[in-house]
Fold this protein.
Amino acid sequence: MNQYGPLPDISGIDRYFNNIPDAYFLMKILLDENGDPYDFVYLYTNEAIHSISTLYKEDFIGRRFSEIFGVMPPKKWLKPYYSSAFHGTRDSWKDYSDEIQEYVEITCFPFEEGCAACFVKKITDKTLYERTIISSRLSYREIYFIDLRRDHYQMIFPSGEGSEKGSYSEAINQHFLSGQIAATNDVDEVKASLSLDNIRKSLKDKDYIEFKYQRRSPEGKSEWCLTGISVCERADGEAATVSMAIRSIEDLIAADERQQKVLTAALEEARRANSAKSDFLSSMSHDMRTPLNVITGMATLARIHNDDHSVVNDCLDKIDVSSKHLLSLVNGVLDMAKIENGDIELDDSAFSLSDMMEDIVLMTQSMISSKHQVLNFSLKNPEHENVIGDDNRLTQALLNILTNAIKYTDRHGRIQVEISERAFEDHTATYRFIIRDNGCGMSEEFLSHAFEAFTREVDIRLNKVAGTGLGLAITKKIIDKMGGVIHVNSTVGVGTEFIVDVPLLVQKDGQSEMTFPDERVLIVDDYIPCIDSICSVVEALESNHMAVSTGAEALSLLEETQNSTNPFTVAIIDYIMPDMDGITLTKEIRKRFGKSLPIIMISAYDYSMVKKEASKAGIDFFCTKPIFRSKLLRIFPYLRNQDEINEDYKALERRKHKKLKALLAEDNLLNAAIAKNLLEYLGLEVETAEDGKDALDTFRHSAPYEYDCIFMDVQMPVMNGLAAAKAIRVLDREDANIPIFAMTANVFTEDVRQTREAGMQEHIGKPINISQLQHVLERYFPDYDIIPENPHI
């Protein structure tokens, strides 16, 4: 008796297994006082153990795993070892071994009670490992010991009573050991390859040979197998005894066939894609020349009729529309080219879903207004607003879907956007964005190709192809890259629904837990889902509320309550409603009830054109849909003290008389003139610098807080914008944190990341979108009235 209890008789085992090519070891499983496995001791290993580690067989035999490697055996391996040793099971798996730092394939099987044996094969090719990880049947079938001199064989695995033995030649001729050679082979050729004479001849100058063929498995099925024959002993220079190991390689063969089919399909797909690209480029040539023709033609007409302002303005309007269309074509082609080259990258940063949706609303307002469409938003369970992810890419994806909805929906059509938080686990929330329209819809045939690049649906009603054919393909690539999913439902003549699920990491700081139980809120909106979402947000603030869908109902309710002991303390009113809009309702409220009730106007549209009229009507606050909790958290603290509100507004009015002063760094004189004029149009005072170094020197020598912000081009001579921004940030002056906005034609994800790393807060792409420019200024300078004198530009 030794310290490990009774051990099996393994005398002579070295003769059978020492020369096979795969590592083989026999182990005794060690149990704790509860009968659970915790370690094992090596009873035997063959020479091939050195092929998978830096150790030799004598370093293993008689020693525990933990003693050799300094750690306990992996539980995921110890469990099948235990099962084989005590329950007689077999198992096969592939994994990465931390101890030997190799990918390995392990086949485990029972030996005797409490003992298990294993074959371990090193997988040197990681790609091969990944390909074979799905295989569940790649394992040893049988192992035989053959005495070539005596023409005798004996099965040594699986072992036990009834194991096969006898004349090898008779076994070959009668039934080929435990299985039959499949009829799909040349039977005589296989028998000849495995004959004693051929084995001797083949092993004359080699220690190992192998043959591949099909046979009948022990389960009676046809399978591919690999028979490997290794020399155990030599006599007079010839192989005297050998081991024959038969392995199933059915899954590898099947995997090869599947791979071949995949490659064939990929080749066909590549051919189809190339054909689609050729067709696409042919049509794109036409599509690009069309707006170019309009731009050049309208410019010519404007010069001819330069004394007729109505004609010039009409030409400029058409140039503006065509240039934006041309820009969308160019952006789509460039972005898709980067994605197809594998250059798409995500730039994760902290952002607010509320701010992101406000940007999306801003960027689609002009399209919505021009078609007089109805855009509605609703929120469901938005528990976490502050998240971490690539807001630029997510914005791009959602914008592609929303602009398509606008484009393919008729005038006065309806578009709905629904945002919900679906799940939260491990600091990650899954958000669902649903965009529905009642537009023309997509055919069932096109739906299966909707997310493929260079495919476009023919709009039968207009008898022409619309769109670039890239927007949805780019969107799908972005959502996939973010770990999300996108799905589309559509019916011709009814409309389309896009469902996007995206996981985003939630910011640890969360959001304010402030509540307002003393507030009583009146909600007025004609869109029921929007009412529901606002109600849920107000409920989260623990405020009381009532909701109505018309101005008349609101006035009636106010008549009943405002002179009671429980009046409303704030009203949230939609801007656009049938019968009585928000401004008209506000005027009537002020006429009947005075200024005691704070009023918040909400809208999914650009209210800058009516802001002055709304303020005169008595609107206290403006809020862009969708209404997230954070927006009301910014407003509600002011509600309890009207004097504070009035003082705040007096302060705002005082500051409106002072212009914002901006420093503009731009080396291109024409671009500088355009940017300067646009900024001055928005009410800013602008000084220019011709490059990054000039901007740095100008700012360094200015008085503290002389400039309110800096607009910085990136690619400039002498010193580029990135270097200039970094240099400004490290200046020893109290206003070194001045807002710096990149204004550049470098618009890809890595460009945005570089500007942020340089210390710039915002990225404004060229050509400059004046609405985006205005929105950025309003966000950073809410105390200033950034409204152009002519808001119809």
